[in-house]
Amino acid sequence: MVVKSFERIGFKLLEVKPFDGIKGLKDEISCLKHPLQLLYDSKQIHFKVLKKLLDMGVVWFSHHMKLFVFERQLNVSKRKEAR
Fold this sequence. Notes:
The chain is an alpha+beta fold. The protein has helices spanning 2-8, 21-28, 33-41, 45-58, 76-82, and strands spanning 11-19, 65-72.
């Protein structure tokens, strides 16, 4: 829906990047909320590494937010005017 709305007004989708897979997972699955919250809040280096590895595995199906990168498409007449 978001992508189509931007495409209708002349933008092209270049990239979609999901963020924060662990937060998305802990917010959606209540039985994992407490253990994932402990991992999420931990400042110890070995837990930070574990959090990063786990996040890379789950971010593609469970995420807190997404970054959409669009590029404005110029039609042929506007490209000539820009030169």
